[in-house]
Request: fold
Amino acid sequence: MTDSANPNEDAHTPRQKIETIINQLRQYIQQDGGDLEFIDFDEQGIVKVRLHGACVGCPGAAMTLKNGVEARLMEAVPEVKGVERVD
Reply:
């Protein structure tokens, strides 16, 4: 267990928080036959993800990324400024 009084022992970096949240969201996306893969988190605060399965070519995928994934990440991880899809 991490001692939260010691700022030098932060076990939850932004990247770790992002990976945790994406893994939580994946189960919902997988229920519809798709999948979401975390690719990168860059110095500008952009999370890069790749869509798989039914998400590829789905007209609702952009809305899922913006209103679902991006909104959740920005709410939970202040360092996140946006989410981009990569192929």
